[in-house]
Specification:
The chain has about 70 residues and is mostly helical. The protein has three helices and no strands. The chain is flat. It starts with a helix and ends with a helix.
Amino acid sequence: MTMNQAFGVSGRKEPEGEAPAGGIAAVCMPGEPNSGSLEAIREGDVFLASGECGRFANGTDFVAAAMAR
């Protein structure tokens, strides 16, 4: 199996605005972030600037916590 087959890429041109056969349609994002996104960006910037450690020390801890739910 090729990578294209694995990911559903048919290799043929689709009409504009249509998803590739077996693929996933691209999501159109608005030009500007909404108020919730802007708030999350600000919170992330403040956290990163603080230099504090997050709740999880590494990716393994994060995945383990997610899987425990």
